[in-house]
Amino acid sequence: MTYTAGLDLGSTYTKVIVLDENDHIVARVLKPTGFKFADVAASAYAEALEQASLKPEDVGYLVNTGFGRHQAPMADAQVTDLTAAARGAAFFFPGTRTILDVGGQTMKATRVTEAAKVKSFRLNDKCAAGTGAFLEKTARYMGYSTTEIGPLVSTSKEAVPISGVCAVFAESEVINQLSQGVAPADIMHGAIVSLVGRSVQLLKRVGMEPEFTLIGGILRFERMVEVVRQQLGKPVNVPPGDLVQFVAAVGAAVLGQRRLRKLALTPVPSP
Question: Are 229 and 140 in a shared domain?
Fold first, then answer.
């Protein structure tokens, strides 16, 4: 059995996926990245190998991706997170043509070809109001943790508009709404609607077309998916469960399988 691994060193979380030659996921690990990229990469990879009952030599190819992809020296190759996410989205949904990736520090919109190659992309990484960090900061200000965002917003009756185009101004709106006795759930719902509005603008700029696939840690919140679906007016694909956070790592592992197959077909030069 031949195995490959994908290691996604994100700015907030590090993810590892191990695939067998039949494209079955045999291990997955998620850890906070922190500031020591090499250490967390080594730790997460070791945990994934242990989970799959494998040794390092059992993995034929390891591909790194993500913000810190060059900080983990044990990889056989590095690819951009856009490339890895495109392959990962196609792994789950082969008809994918447009990808929305909302993480803690960045938001990305990507249009891909039938062969899952990046055709065009746009990023929003300049202001926290356009990333998942805005939701996390809003939750913390109101006394909630990131893990409580989903349960909190599920109780919302209506979204309170948050119109600030800057995280600082948006935070002022949140303070004002709280002072008027608005329910935290409705404020969080409004923050999600605001974030989705920015994401739809990015999607328009890449020339979006169906099928739409949503990935990234922030898309694990069901209300976020519902609002995207409403604003697009189209069906959307979402990988099941926590796999929505592992798409780029899956794509990196898939690219590792492709690389191994190419190497197997390459003639060995005569001595």
Answer: yes
**Burial (CB count within 10 angstroms: exposed 0-12, middle 13-18, buried 19+), residue 43:** middle
**39 and 99 housed in the same domain:** no
210-242 pLDDT tens trace: 999 999 988 888 888 999 999 999 999 999 989
Q: How far apart are the first and last CA of the chain?
A: 29
Beta-strand relationship, 13-20 and 25-32: antiparallel
CATH number for the domain spanning 187: value is 3.30.420.40
Residue type for position 5: A
pTM of the predicted model over 0.70: yes
Q: Are residues 150 and 217 in the same domain?
A: yes
Note whether residue 271 is domain-resident: no
For residues 87 and 116, what is the distance between their CA atoms, to the nearest angstrom? 6
Tokens matching residue 70? 């060059």
